[in-house]
Amino acid sequence: MVWTKDENTGISLPSLRVDGFSTEMMDKIKSVRRSGLTFAPEAGTQRLRDVINKNVTEEELFKTVNTAFSGGWTTIKLYFMIGLPTETLEDITGIAELGQKVVDAYYDNPDKPKGKSVKVSLSASSFVPKPFTPFQWEPQDTMEMLRQKQRHLVGAIKTRKIESSWHDADTSFLEAVFARGDRRLCDVLFEAQKSGCKMDGWQDFFSLPKWMTIFQKCGIDPVFYANRRRSFDEVLPWDHIDYGIQKSFLISECKKAYSDTTTPNCREQCSACGAACFNGGICYEDR
Questions:
Q1: Using DSSP, how many helices (H) and how many strands (E) does the chain show?
Q2: Is 279 in a helix, a strand, or coil?
Q3: Residue 91, Cβ neighbours under 10 Å: how many?
């Protein structure tokens, strides 16, 4: 990134792994201007991070944010998901508590910028179960459950140095419907287009009641796709696609999640997921 300094071009990075931010990277980012930093703990408690196999710890997070604070940053954004499998309100409280610990880490850091306050932003998107993942059988939380958790997060924040934001539950519900939908939803999409549903990514244009009317007109129950737990032996709409990962491996990973058991990163140990053998691929361990 030497050219960025010569051309006076700032670099802004998307959310980073908690364990992926180094002093060298920090120096390169701030060589022109100090852009925002976003780190992704994903969950507020270690138990839930183990459930989703995040394989990062609070110690790694604090090491990373202290590196940023020592480098002159005073604003940190933390990215989380709510509605994860096995999640409880204690896990939601953990998001606010983790934000408070980051605030405390700033004021405990002797190398922090002098005379400046800190701001920690907590961004919470709603979990959407996706195909080809260990959680493809899981239900999404209902919209009311997601809103309850969003309200709980706001109530758990005790300082103005922390602000929170989240994705709207309505749009997350629609995303879950189409994420695990089948060919019957083609009629819904066609009818939505005819009904003027467009630019729905903008809240000013999005109308869930309009979508619900379209679902009803097409004889489709969206809850069937978004909020229903699926059995391991159910034939899924995407099962005919060969995506390299063995379905038995995904089932095993889903079961391990409920026992809070993590799987090592493939750089540490091959887990025999099947991806390395797909289309003549080579396992990381053999590269």
A1: 11, 4
A2: helix
A3: 20
C-alpha–C-alpha distance, residues 239 and 222, integer Å? 20
d(CA 16, CA 26): 12
Q: Is 138 exposed, middle or buried (0-12, 13-18, 19+ CB in 10 A)?
A: buried
Q: Do residues 139 and 84 lie in contact, with contact meaning Cβ atoms separated by under 8 Å?
A: no
pTM: 0.87
What would the pLDDT profile of 211-232 be if each residue is shown by its tens digit? Answer: 999 999 999 999 999 999 999 9
Distance of CA 155 to the CA centre of its chain: 22
Kindly report the three-state secondary structure assignment for every residue of 16-75.
Answer: ECCCCCCHHHHHHHCCCCCCCEEEEEECCCHHHHHHCCCCCCHHHHHHHHHHHHHCCCCE
CA count, 13 A, side-chain hemisphere, 48? 22
What gap in Å lies between CA 128 and CA 206, rounded to an integer?
Answer: 18
Q: What's the burial of 140, exposed, middle or buried (CB within 10 Å: 0-12/13-18/19+)?
A: buried
pLDDT tens track for 16-67: 666 666 666 666 666 545 667 889 999 999 999 999 998 888 999 999 999 8
